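Bug report (template v2)

What were you trying to do?
Predict the complex of my protein with manganese (II) ion.

What happened?
Run completed; filing so the output is reviewed.

Input:
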Amino acid sequence: MAQEIACLCRFLPPCQRHALPSRSASRSARQIGRQIGNPSATAATDFPMRMLHTSDWHLGQLLCDHSRDDEHKAFLDWLAAFAGKVQADALLLAGDVFDSMAPSSLARRRFFEFLAALERTGCRQAVIIGGNHDSPSVLNAPAEYERAHGVWVAGEKPAALDEELVWLNNREGEPCALLCAVPYLRDADVRVQGLADDPRKREDELRQGVAAHYLQLAQLAQARLQEAGLDLPVLAMGHFYAMDAKRFSSETRLDRGTLGAVPVDRLAEAFDYAALGHLHSAQSVGCFKHVRYPGSPLPMSFDEQRPKEIVVLDAAEGGARFGEADLKDFSFAHEGCRLLAEGRLRMARVRIPCFRPVVEAAGTAAEAVAKVEEIFRTLPRALVKVSVQGGAADAYARIQALAEAHAGDPERPIVLQFVDEAKRERFLAREEEPCPDLASLAPRDVFRMRMADEGLEEALQARLLARFDEACEALRLDGGLEADAGADGQTAARTAARADAGGGQ
Ligand SMILES: [Mn+2]
């Protein structure tokens, strides 16, 4: 019963919550002094609180049309087991839970299976904000039900500022930190009166608007702590691109946000830790160790080679301090953060296992093929991108033969993308040339240009062109092709290509 009450009152301010009975303190100091990789160490203080910070799961993501469900499932199983092992009290998930606004049933199923598994570990609090990839209504739909299970979710900015404040409690129901949880802010969320007409100035005002929203929340949090007579860490959770942070290609490509880089120096002063999401590479922002992106748990593109991680954050209860012994096992860094420096917060980065290597094999045809052969020998289940500089047709055939030879092996690497660099460069060079006006071209010219792009042999080009002419003639006899219709020219091109493919090559 007490447990249910503690669960129900989890999100109430402590002044209201203290009126209710709290769970009895049943754990020993040794149990509470949990350490990563050092279970024998004990904490100097009773009831510290442990949080896990993660973001950018992108459940349902496809890499070159390849489902990543097995990787996501492996990650979520690992995370739930880890939360149980280190007895985490709260999970902070900083946005981009799903990859798309309309996630698949399977992606949603993984999410709820995880929440159930997390609850079973005894971690009874999860705080989840929407990212720019998330649909606010998809995240919010089960919010009422989730709240009864200790899950606080905000798909979009709530109506009142107070609703973004979440008390984080330890297992005994004692508040240990106050979190300002801010979902991804869209233009309309921070729109201010009389915005500048100049787009650059306007964007700057919007960025300042985002920063101002966080600062306003920090002030409100301090006021609430004062009212409650508590001295606790004030944390922020948000989903945005912080100035000075580094980006990867998957972020620029997938970024559907309109807001630019947000300045964080004042945020770094206002919060004892900022749990950020949006960027896929784990990093601190500028010189602030406590303003941190854990990054995505899976590599989202072939250029994300660095190990993946989650952050473990411990808060000492009621302003107590961790002893020296408690801190020595943590990758302890306190630049810019008063509480980290005072030993009232501690932070550790924990590496996520690699569930499937995501690798690129690039070079000349011979080099690329050798690298792919090496991957097939040494990296089971790898997802592979091949980039070939010259001799692409030969390399393609050899890699295809290799893949076919391993077709029955469930552990085989999978080549997801094959890039002919020479062709790509031809294409890019063409993009720089002035583009001819389509109206000035006959369908036959368009077809010839398309064949040239493919780099086909002269003889094949001539044969395809003859087929194209035949197809056009047939269409003209049917009355289906006007002399200057570009779209019909494309139909004829497809007909010709099909006729040739079916013509016994
Ligand atoms: Mn994002």
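What did the reviewer find?
The pocket of manganese (II) ion is lined by residues 96, 131-133, 239, 278 (CB under 6 Å). Residues 1-45, 252-259, 483-489, 498-505 have pLDDT under 50 and may be disordered.
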